[in-house]
Amino acid sequence: MWTETDNSLRRSFRFADFKTAFAFLTEVAAEAERLDHHPWFSNEYNAVEFRLRTHDAGNTVTKRDHRLAAAIDAVAARYTFR
């Protein structure tokens, strides 16, 4: 579930292992390129965290962030979580 905190949309995912987490990030990267909106993310072993906000709009949450969040959720739907 995405939460809006500190002018950003945030969500964390936990996968079975690093390889799966990285495969997920690779798919998300393709979606980010397609939408021309690139997220901040962190990846440590099997955990991935996103923070979405639009720099061009003064670092606030915009429709672009919600579109990217939906795209990330669509990618995530193809994975099994821990």
Automatic annotation (TrEMBL):
Q: Where are the transmembrane segments?
A: none
UniProt entry keywords in alphabetical sequence: Lyase
Top-level taxon in the UniProt lineage:
Bacteria
Documented EC number(s)? 4.2.1.96
Q: Which InterPro entries match?
A: PCD_sf, Pterin_deHydtase
What family does this belong to? Answer: Belongs to the pterin-4-alpha-carbinolamine dehydratase family.
Designated name of the protein: 4a-hydroxytetrahydrobiopterin dehydratase
